[in-house]
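My current task is to audit a protein record that another person submitted. Please read both lines and tell me whether the tokens look consistent with the sequence. Do not assume that whoever made the record got everything right. I have pasted the whole thing underneath without changing anything:

===
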Amino acid sequence: MFRFHKPVNIITLFHHPAHAPSTRVLTLLKTASAHASETATEDQASDHSHQNKIQRNEFQLDVTEEPPTSDQFRTILEYLGGGKRVGELVEGAKDEVDAMRKLKENAKAFRRPVVVDWNNGKAVIGENESGILKMLGSLPKGDSV
């Protein structure tokens, strides 16, 4: 019998290592990723029935210090509900065209951290821990571990 596996969810963090909120978001994502993939080992417990039944929200964490490409930027804006939040993504931007121009002039104008769930069309700007955890919690459950 064939069994189709869902693709792994990809979560991207647009990161700035010298920026404390970005570092905290990275730590949060790494912790969530570790918890999603953890399982008990033989020496931890003799009864694995609970772990075997747990459905995990596993994801692949992609961390980049580069700003998004123009296509990624447009997609992120779409995930956020359109251009009304463009100023939150690019410092001083008035609209999408202005944002793209500012990004080409200075990649540092892109405000980090930004967490993006490409598979499910969601994005969170900044150190919004509850928003990030909500995004991760809504990931489709993986196969039983």
Observations:
- The CA atoms of residues 68 and 112 lie 11 Å apart.
- The two ends are 19 Å apart (CA to CA).
- The helical segments are 20-37, 49-53, 70-79, 86-89, 96-105, 129-137.
